[in-house]
Amino acid sequence: IFEKVYDVTKLEPVIAKPHSPDNKAFVSEVKGTKLDRAYIGSCTGGKLTDFIEWKVETEFAGESGADTPSFKDAYIQFNDIPYIPGLTGQLRVGQFREPFGMDEITSSRRARTFLEQPLTAVFDPSYNPGIQWSDALFGEPGKERLTYELGIFKTADDWPSSNDNAARGYGETVRVTGLPYYKEDGTSLLHVGLAYSHRNPNG
Fold it and tell me: Among 25, 190, 196, 197, whose CB has the most other CB atoms within 10 angstroms?
């Protein structure tokens, strides 16, 4: 048994620079650097407990490059909520990407370039405030063969924005994915997905 004492007044804040947590530096070394986007949490999102997790991501450049900051992700999620015997799901509330496709729910840190985006990306509803329920079924934890997500959202995009007061309605979005074929070593698999979004601009 041993004891270590640290003087916190001598500890200097450290940040991680793109694109890896290992690319760290003292805050004083990057003083004056302009921020376009800030992420509060961790690489998998912040956690209060195993039951509660959260994420906050802010775009400092604002909407269309304006100076007013806007939120990308700003939500809290409750995990392991029982809804029928033997099954638990996740409830997410706040602003986040609607579950419309793989590109939509992929972290912006790993977002593809414009030329790599599928043609359907123009229809993606993107970030909106709402409430979502999701679960993964059929398989070991972390290796489930079926997932589903469903939610109700207010059409707003980034918040705050220049059209916050505009009546843009609501939408309901559902996404289901399946893994009907998977080779144990992962060298070959078949992954399929289906998403549907109904928009009510006058709602």
Answer: 197
What Cα–Cα distance (Å) separates residue 102 from each residue in 16, 56, 124, 149, 193?
A: 26, 20, 11, 12, 9
Q: Which residues of 4-25 are buried (b: 16+ CB within 10 A; e: fewer)?
A: eeeeeeeeeeeeeeeeeeeeee
Count of beta carbons in the 10 Å neighbourhood of residue 195 = 20
Q: What is the mean pLDDT of each run of 10 residues along the chain (203 residues)?
A: 85 81 86 73 65 82 60 89 92 93 60 53 79 92 89 76 63 93 83 90 72
pTM score, whole prediction: 0.70
CB 72 within 8 A of CB 57: yes
Q: Is the peptide bond before 198 cis (omega within 30 degrees of 0)?
A: no
CA distance 21 to 61: 23
First to last CA, the chain: 64
